[in-house]
Write a structure and sequence with these properties.
The structure is a homotetramer.
Chain A lengths: L3 E6 L4 H10 L5 E8 L8 H4 L10 H5 L2 E3 L8 E4 L3 H13 L3 E4 L15 H4 L15 E4 L3 H17 L1 E10 L11 H4 L10 H5 L2 H5 L2 E3 L2 E3 L4 E8 L6 E9 L5 H10 L3 H4 L10 E3 L8 H4 L2 H4 L2 E8 L5 E7 L3 H18 L6
Parallel strand pairs in A: 1-2, 1-4, 2-3, 4-5, 5-6, 7-10, 12-13
Antiparallel strand pairs in A: 7-11, 8-9, 11-14, 13-14
Helix pairs in contact in A: 1-14, 6-14
Chain lengths: ~350, ~350, ~350, ~350
C-alpha cells in the first residue's frame, strides 16, 4: 500500500514536533513537506527547530528544508499546528487548493460544515464533509486539548445515563501554551488562574462534539456546562475536576462499568494510533496523576479516578489526558487515520 | 503591660516554626516554653529543628531547651501545632490543667463547646467558652487551612446576599502537609488529586463557622457545599476555584463592593496581627496567584479575583490565602489576640 | 534457552521498581522472587508498592507475594536494591548461601575481592570473582550513580591521553535519594549543596574502577580527583561539570573522536541492555540536558557536551547520565548480562 | 536634606522592578522618572508592567507615565536596567548630557575609565571618575550578578592569604535571565548547561574588580580563573561551587575568621542598603541554600558554607547571593549610596 504524502504546517512548534514524532514511522503516512513561518523558511528543520521531544529528531526529518505555509506543498494531506491567529486563512487556502486539512487550531472548529472530530465520540460527524464547501479539499478540526479528554470521559455517561450539567475546573500543563509559551518566572512555585479563551472553548465545543448528526447538520447537546481553567507547573497532562448531574442517576459501579466497557470505531477498526481502551478508570484513591498516567496507552487514553457522590451534582471525579498527544497531534492523527480508513467522503 | 507567657506544642514542625516566627517579637505574648515529641526532648531548639522559615531563627529561641508535651509547662497559654493523631488527648490535658489552648489541630474543631474561630467571621462564637467544660482551661480551635480563606471570602456574601450552594476545587501548597510531608518525587511535575480528610473538612467546618451563636450553642448554616482537593507543586498558598449560588442574586459590582468594604472586629480593635483588609479583590484578570499574593497584608488577607457569571451557579471566582500564616499559625495567633483583648470569657 | 531465575531485594524502593521494569520482559532472566523489609512481607507486591515508574506495573508481578530478605529465595541470582545500612550483612548471607549477588549498594564496593563493575570500562575485573571468598556465591558491585557516568566519559580519555587530575561538580536528581527521599519543601525552588557520602564515593570509586587487574588484584589509577555534590529539583538524570588535566594534551577534536569511537565488550557481545554507543558527544552548545537526553539509548548512554579549553586544567565539559537506569538498575543488569554471557567465573 | 531625583531606565523589566521596590522608600533618593522602550512609552507604569515583585506596586509609582530612554529626563541620576544590546549607546548619551549613570548592563564594565564597583571590595576605584571622559556626567558599572557574590567571598581571602587560582561552577536562578527570559518548558525538571556570555564575564570581571587602583588606572589581579555556568529551576539566588588555591595556605578556621570579620566602607559609613555583614559563613553542612538564605541581610549579603580541603586546590566551598538584589539592583543602589555619601568625584 502506498503511503499518503503529508505535510506539517507550523512544524517547528511544540505541536508540530509532536506531529513529526508520531508520524515519522507511521504505516500509512509519509512526511514529504514541512512548513513554518517566514523566519524559518529555507533553513533545514534541524537548524530551525528547538527540538524538545524526548525521542531524538529523526535525521532524515532534520535534513528536510522548511517551506513557507503556502498551498503548493508536495503532499496531499496537511496537519496544521498553526497558531489560531494565522490558521484560519492559511487552512482555508489549502482546502481551496484541494488539500485535506487536519487542523489543530481553533479557527474552523465551530464552523457548521466542519466536523469537530473525536473518533471514539462522533465519528459519524465526518458525514459533514460531503457538503463541506471550502473548495476541492476538506477541513477536519481537532477540538481544544482540554475538551478532548473531557468528551472522552463524558461520552459513555451521556449514552448510558444522559447528562444535565457539567462543572469543570482544570489544572493544565505548560506545554499547552506552546513554545516558548509560559515564562518560567510566571509558573515555578505558582498557579495562574487564567488561560485566555480556554473557558469559552470548554463551554462551547462539547455541545457540538456530543451533538447528533441529523440530515446534514449537527444538532447540539442540551446539557449546561461551566468551566474554570488554571495553569500549573506540570510539563504535560491536563487534569480536570469534573462534577456531573445525570438525567438518570445510577450507582457508581455502573458509571465505572460504562467507562471500562467503552470501545468505539477506532478500536473496532484497529487504527494504528487508537488506544486499546479510550477511557481507563483507576481504583487507587490518589489517581490519576499527570506524571504517572499521561503516557497511558501511548498517551491516547483518558485516565479517570476518584468517582464519588457529590452534595450538589450527582457525582464528581477527576480526569487526565495528555494534552499534546491525545489533546493535539495524536488526536488529529487519529482523525486522519479514521478518514484514511473509511474512504473519501467526497475528497478527491 | 506584662506579656502573657506562652508555650508552643509541636514547636519543631512547619506550623510550629511559623508560630515562633510570628510570636518571637509579639507585643503581647512572650515565648517561655517550647515542647515537642520525646525524640527531641532535652535538645536545644536549634539542634532539634530543621529551620525552614525565610527569616533567621532568633538566637534566644534557638537556645531554649525542648520539653515534653505534658501539662506542666512554664506558661499560661499554649499554641498547639500538634499532629491530629496526638493533639486530642494532649490538648485536653492542658485545658484540664488550666491552660488556654489555641489549637491548630482538627481534634476538637467540631466539638459543640469549642469555638471554631475566625475573628473576622464569628468572633461572637467565643461566647461558647463560658460554658466550655474541659476543665479550668479552655480550648479554642483554628479551622482547616483551606476553610479559613474560604469563609473569609464567603462571609461578606452570606451577610449581603445569602448563600444556597458552594462548589470548591482546591489547588493546595505542599507546606500544608507539614515536614517532611510530600515527597519531591511525588509532586515535581505532577498534581495529586487527593488530600486525605481535606474534602470532609471543607464540607463540614464552614457550617459551624458561618453558623449563628444562639443561646449557648451554634446553629449551623444551611447552604450546601461540595469540595474537590488537589496538591500542586507550590510552596505556600492555597488556591480555590469557587462557584456560588446566592439566595438573592446581585450584580457583580455589589459582590466586589461587599468584599472591599468587609471589615470586622480585628480591624476595629486594631489587633497586632490583623490584616488591614481581610478580603482583597484584584481587578487583573490573571490574579490572584500564590507567588504574587500569598504575602499580602502580612499573609493574613484572602485574595479574590476573576469574578464572573456561571452557567450553573450564579458566580464563579478564585481565592488565595497563605496556608501556614492565615490558614494556620497566623490565624491561631489572631484568635489569641482577640481573646487577650476582649477579656477572659471565664478564663482564670 | 532456559531463563535464569532471579530475585530482587528491596523490591519496593525506587531502584527496586526500576529493576522490575527493566527485567520484567528480559530475554535471559525471569523474576521468581521479590523481597522487601518485614513491614511489607506477606503482602502482594501491588499492595505494598507505591509504583512510580512511567510504565504500568506488570500484573503478574503485582500479584507476587513479598518475601523477607533471607537467603532461601526461590532463585539463583539476586539483584540487590537494599539500603546500604542493611545491604552488607544480607548480601553476605546470600553470597554465602550460593547466590550470585548483583548489588547496587555501597557496602561491598571497595572490598578488594569484589569487582566494581562497569562492563564498558573494566569487564576484565570480573576475574576477581575467581578468588572471591564470600562462600559458594559471588558478589558483584555496581558503582555509585554519579560515578558510572563519570567513568564512562573518562575511560576513552584515559586510554587515549592519560589523566592527571579531575574536578567534578555534580547537579543530581532527586530520584537518587530513593523514595520518599528528598522532601518537596526542601527542594522545590532550591538547591541543596550536600549529598551525604557522595563526594567521598566520587573521590574513591573511580580509582578502583579505572584501575588495572594485575595478577589477582586491582592496581588503582593514579590521577587526583575532587568532587562537590549538589541536589537540584530534577526528577531523573545527574549532570556533572567536569574539568580534566590530561597526561598528553590533545586537540579537542581528538577527545570528541575518542568518545564517539568508544565501543567495548557489551557492544561487541551485543548484550540486551547495552547502549549502542556508550558515550555520546552532542554538538549543540546548550546540551546535554536531563530532560532531553536522560533517556538516550534506553537510558544507558552517557551524554557529553560543551567541551572547551580551561584556564586551570586542559579541558572542561558537561556530562549527563540517567541515575536510576545507567547509574543503578540498568547498570547492575548490564553487569549480570556480561556474567551470564561470559560464563561462570567459578560460580556454580 | 533634599533627596536626589533619580530615574530608572528599563523600568518595566525584572531588574527595573527591583530598583523601584528598593528605591521607592529610600531616604536619599526619590524616583522622578521612569523610562522604557518605545512600546511602553506614554502608558502609565501600572498599565505597562507585569509586576512580579513580592511586595505590591506602590500606587504613586503605578501612576507615573513611562518616558522614552532619551537624555532629557527630569532627574539628576539614573539607574540603568537596560539590556546590554542598547545600554551602551543610551548610557553614553546620558553621561554626555550630564547625568550620573549607575549601570547594571555589561556595556561599559571593562572600559578602563569606568569603575566596576562593589563598595565592600574596591570603593577606591571610584577615583577613576576623576579622569572619566564621557562628558559632564559619569558612568559607574555594577558587575555581573554571579561575579558580585564571588568577589565578596574572595576579597577577604585575597587580602589575608593571596589567591593563585579559582575554579567556579555556578547554578543560577531563572530571574537572572530577565522576563520573560527562560521558557518554563526549558527549565522545569531540567538543568541547562549554558548561559550565553556568562563564563566569559566571570573569567574577566574579577581581574578588574580585585585589581588595585594605581595612579589613575586599575592594575588587574593576577590569579587564574575558570568558570562553568548552569541554569537551574530556582527563582532567585545564584549558587557557586568554588575551589581556590591560595598563595599562602592557612587553616580552615582562618578563612572562616576572615569571612566573619570582613567589614568595609559601606558598613563603616552605615549606608542605608549595606548589609550588616557582607559575608556570612554558615556552620551547617547543608548550607547555604537559595530558598533559605537569599534574603539574608535584606538580600545584600553573600552566604558561604561547606569549606573543606580539596585534593586539587587548597579549599573548596559553596557561595550564594541574591542575583537581582545584591547581584543587580541592590548592588547598583549601594554603589550610588557610596557616591552620594563620599561626594562628587568631579560630578556636577
Amino acid at each position: 500500500m502506498k503511503k499518503i504524502p503529508v505535510g506539517i504546517l507550523g512544524a517547528t512548534g511544540s505541536v508540530g514536533q509532536r506531529f513529526i514524532e508520531l508520524i515519522a514511522n507511521h504505516p500509512w503516512f509519509e512526511i514529504t513537506a514541512l512548513a513554518a513561518s517566514d523566519r524559518s523558511t529555507g533553513k533545514s528543520y534541524r537548524e530551525a527547530v528547538n527540538w524538545l521531544m524526548p525521542t531524538p529528531l529523526p535525521p532524515a526529518i532534520g535534513r528536510m528544508q522548511l517551506q513557507p505555509c503556502v498551498a503548493n506543498l508536495p503532499c496531499a494531506w496537511v496537519f496544521s499546528a498553526l497558531d489560531s491567529s494565522v490558521a484560519g486563512a492559511i487552512e482555508g487556502d489549502f482546502a481551496k487548493a484541494g488539500y485535506i486539512v487536519h487542523s489543530n487550531a481553533s479557527s474552523h472548529r465551530m464552523h457548521p460544515e466542519v466536523p469537530l472530530l473525536v473518533p471514539e465520540v462522533n465519528g459519524e460527524h465526518l458525514e459533514l464533509l460531503k457538503r463541506q464547501s471550502f473548495g476541492k479539499g476538506k477541513i477536519i478540526a481537532n477540538p481544544n486539548c482540554s475538551v478532548i479528554g473531557l468528551v472522552l470521559a463524558l461520552k459513555p455517561l451521556l449514552d448510558a445515563f444522559g447528562i444535565e450539567a457539567i462543572n469543570v475546573v482544570t489544572m493544565q500543563a505548560i506545554s499547552g501554551a506552546g513554545y516558548p509559551g509560559v515564562a518560567s518566572l510566571d509558573i515555578i512555585d505558582n498557579v495562574i488562574p487564567l488561560i485566555k479563551g480556554e473557558e469559552e472553548k470548554i463551554e462551547s465545543e462539547p455541545y457540538k462534539i456530543l451533538g447528533r448528526y441529523v440530515s446534514g447538520r449537527i444538532e447540539p447537546s442540551t446539557f449546561k456546562i461551566s468551566a474554570q481553567c488554571n495553569r500549573v507547573p506540570v510539563n504535560d497532562g491536563h487534569m480536570e475536576c469534573v462534577s456531573v448531574k445525570l438525567r438518570n442517576k445510577a450507582p457508581a459501579k455502573d458509571l465505572i462499568a460504562a467507562w471500562r466497557n467503552f470501545s468505539s470505531i477506532p478500536q473496532h477498526l484497529n487504527l494504528p494510533t487508537a488506544p486499546l481502551h479510550p477511557s481507563h478508570y483507576h481504583e487507587e484513591d490518589n489517581f490519576p496523576q499527570p506524571k504517572l498516567h499521561r503516557q497511558l496507552d501511548k498517551g491516547m487514553a483518558v485516565s479517570i479516578g476518584r468517582l464519588r457522590e457529590c452534595a450538589l451534582f450527582d457525582y464528581k471525579f477527576t480526569i487526565l489526558s495528555h494534552n499534546t498527544i491525545r489533546g493535539a497531534a495524536g488526536g488529529a492523527l487519529l482523525n486522519a487515520e479514521l478518514m484514511a480508513r473509511q474512504g473519501d467522503y467526497g475528497c478527491h
